[in-house]
Structures are given as C-alpha cells and as structure tokens.
Amino acid sequence: MKKQSFSQRAKKDFRRNRALYLLVLPVLAFYIIFHYKPMYGAIIAFKDYSPGTGIAASPWVGLANFTRFFSGPYFARLIRNTLLLSLYSLLFGFPAPIILALLLNEVRNKKFKSVTQTITYLPHFISMIVVTGMISNFCLSNGLFNDIIVLFGGERSPLLQNPNLYRTIYVASSIWQEVGWGSIIYLSALSGVDAQLYEAASIDGAGKWKQMLNVTLPGISPTIITMLILKMGSLMSLGYEKTILLYNASTYETADIISSYTYRVGLLDQDWSYSTAIGLFNSVINCVLLVISNRLSKKLSDTSLW
Amino acid sequence: MKIKRSMGERIFGVFNYIILSLIMLLCFYPVWYVLVASFSDSGLLMQHSGLLFKSLGFNTDAYVKVFQNPMILRGYANTLFILVVGVVFDIIMTSLGAYFLSRKNVMFKKPIIILIMFTMFFSGGMIPFYLNLKDLHLTKTLWGLIIPFMISTYNMIILRTSFESLPDSLVEAAQIDGASHFKILGRIVLPLSKAIIAVMVLYYGVGIWNAWFWASAIIRDREQYPLQVILREILLQNDVGSMSAGVSVADQEAVGMTIKYATIVVATVPILCVYPFLQRYFTKGVMIGAVKE
After folding, report:
1. Given A21, A30, A41, which is nearest B132 (Cβ)?
2. Residue among B216, B218, B70 at smallest CA distance from A240
3. Nearest CA-CA distance, residue B232 and chain A, Å
C-alpha cells in the first residue's frame, strides 16, 4: 500500500470522523477556555499587572515577583509548613487506612464488617465546612475537646489559637474523615489475595501474624507502593480549603502554607502578579514531583495516572 | 476443610472486634454529639461538661430558629439549582469527552489526550483562573459555579475506561446502520452504562454540594450564596446574628451553640440519610478509578 502524506491522511480522517470531532468540540473549548486561558494568564507572574491595563498591556518586570517571594520574610516558613504538614499527613495518614483494611479483613462476621465499613466511610461525606465547623466548636474553651481534656485533669484553653496544636488537629481530623474511605482500595486488593496461599501457610504452621507478614502484605504491596508514590507526587500541593477554614492570625506560624498564602495575597490583598508568581512556583514544583512519581510508579508497578 | 483456630487466633479475634468497635465509636461519636447537642436545652448544654450520650432535656427551639432563617432556605435553594443544572451539564460534557476518548482509529486522539491530561499536571493557578472568570463575566452569577467546573478530568477518565469495556461490535453495528455518534452515545452507550453514570452523578453531586470556595470568591450578593457559604458564616464566622434575636445577651452564647449544632444537622442529615443506600455506587467508583489501565 502506498504511503499517504500527512495532509492526505488528515483529510481522510476528518472526512471519516467529522461527527466525532464535532462532538468533542465543546469539550476542547472547555479545556481551552477554563484551563489553557488561565495558563496564558499566568504570564502576569512576570508582569506588573493591574486590572485596568489588562494582561497584554501590563509592563514586564522579569523575575521581580519571584525574587520578592524568595527573599521575603515568609518564604522559609511557608516551605517548612507545607512540607511538614504534608509529611505528617503522610506519616500518620498513610498507614491508617491500611491498618483498618487489615483489621477489617480478619472479621468473619459479615454483618459486623459491613456496619463498620458504613460507619467509617460516613465522615467522608460530611462537607469540609461542616467538619471544620465542628472542629472549631469542639476546640473552643468550653467545647467538647476541652471537656475531655478536663476529664483527664488538663486545663481549658482555646485549642485552635495554639500554633503548637494546629498540625495535630489538622492531621488527626483528616485521618478521622478519610480513614474509612481510604481503606476501600486496600480492601479490594486484599480480596484479591489468593486464599490458597493462606491455607498453604497455615498447613506449614504459620500463625496469623506470620501469615500477615508473608502472605497478606506481599499480596497488597503493589497497591501500597502505588498509593505511596502517588502521595509523594502531591507532597507540595496541599489544598488551601481546609487551611483557610481552620487557621487564624495566631496560628499562621505553623498553619500558613503556600496555597493559603497565595489565596491571602491574591484574592484578599489583590496583589495579583505577586500571588500568581507564588502559585506558578508551586505549580511547577507540583508538576515536577508528579511526573517523577508517575515515572516511578509506572516502572515499579505498571500503574500511573495516564 | 475447617482449620481449628488456635488460642492466639481467638484472642486476636476478640481484640480485633474491640479495636474496630472503638474505631467505629471514634468515627461516629462526633456526629452523635452534634445530634444530641442540637436537641439539648441550651442552658443545660452550657453548664454541662464532658461527653454527651443523650440530649439534655429536649428542645427544638434551635431548629425552629434555623428554619426561620431565610438564608438557610435560600442557600438550600441555590445549592439545589447549582446541583441539578450542574450535574446535567457535567454528565453531558463528561460523556461527550469520554465517548470521544473511547473511540479507536481517530487520528488526532493522541494530541487531544495530551492536551487534556496536561491539565492534571499543571494549572495556571488560582488568580489567573479568577481573573479569567471575571473576564468572561462569570463572577457574580451562579453560572460561574457551574460552567467552569463542568468536567473533572479524573471523572472523565473513569467514564472512558468504562465506555471502552463495552464491546466494539455494538458501536460498529450501529454505525453500519447509519446511526450518528450522538445517537450511538445517547441510545446505546449511555443506557448500557447506567451504573457508572450513577457513580458520576454521585461524584459530581457530592462535589457540588460540598463546594464553597469559588462561591465565596465570586458571589457578592448574599441572596445567591449556596448553602455551604451560609454555613461558613454561621459555623466558622460565628454569625448567628439574626437567629438569636430576642434572646438576652447572657443567653446568646448558649443559644448560638445549639443553633450551630442544629444547622449542622439540617445541612448534613440529607446526605447521611441517602448515603448508606448509595454506598455501593461510591465504592464502585473507587474501584474503577483504581484499576484504570
């Protein structure tokens, strides 16, 4: 068969799939208008943008907005807070659903298992506003958490005003909300572990503990590794929503992260170009981390985002 | 063959039930506390210290106040509008994209996939997104909470995976019969994908129900606030204002507390009531998302 030129092939393809391209047109328009146009808009990070002059006409300032951020008083604090909060979330939040799934997997009573699942999934469906609303009310001096602290002989204090407690509250409440939901994926991996392996192991005299170490964990380790690598990819991309709702001026010291700072200087102080520069810096880091973690995940376990 | 369980195993079994029961209690108790506190007498609740297992007295004043607050009902109505219209738009757009991506032998599919996937890795950021909305006159309107969020790339990929699992011969046969792609999508592909569409409806629906950030950023008129933004005012910015009118200053803190808890219940119970029945759809979505490719 004769090789066709690119334009010939394209023409033929358009004739054959015209309806299909027409169908995807709104989707493409959506991506261009709501994803790619803001990407173009991000060039204001290199400009001194003001709404009156517009994106194109605003004067270029090179890297001035970036150097202002890097040499500013908050740079080190923001990086530290973002990384620490992410690391703590990973350290405590990552094993929690695995452990829950392992425990659930040992339950023989079907009814008990399904009730436990339903109840532990429940907090996932409570909105962020309500969850943080509950936290902030429980943390008040006369709130539930203080009642419990007093029960154990402690003293009352407004917990959310204390920068030393902020990360604990943030991480613990995230675990509370997501542990059950996060266990679903491991439970499905566990159900895929060959039952014959357990029988073989127990005939060989392996107890429950040995079986878990030698059969269960190796069985779900691909899932664990994949999830871990994907989590590593989002190490610097902590969302701003929960932070904005939970922090206050007295806890900025430990609570303020890159994304919440971007929000504050951007939407609240309307320092458009500066905020965009910080956001862009964060986006680039996230992108690099994601690509690396995806490469790793693809290599190790054949799973990736794309 | 039944293997006899050793002593150690039986002890572990008992401990396992105890640990899981504790975890359940931890997950459920805060919700329970809110529920019983909301029905409590505000004065008694204020004096009480410690855990709460049943309501202190029984008082529905807080609920009366919550339902008399026009903003809560207004918020409910706004959220419902965004929810219904939004989910319809979301499903249409997402299935258009997913259908395209699930077709084979399309020359420009690859570059389009790259164009779409790239957005999962990189974004212009919050401020350019906001300025873009302003540019498009999508601020100060509820449409600004619908149109810019019509497609979640992640959901679209889940849907594509599901479409791809349908036998090719179905679509091909319909094409030979002269059916257009719109017809194939609407009459064959979507009806065969009811379960996964249900998952999509739930995912988008919960997302819209919980969303608050962009509403708080672009909506100026309080009449247009969705429920979550109203909740934020009441729960986090302590703005129970109008609801505690007619209460003496001394009692305001106490009444405010029960009002907050009642507000949480009113805003959360609808979801928590329907969720156990829909649980299997939600978990199904997690599975499909996990096994893609």
Report:
1. A41
2. B216
3. 6
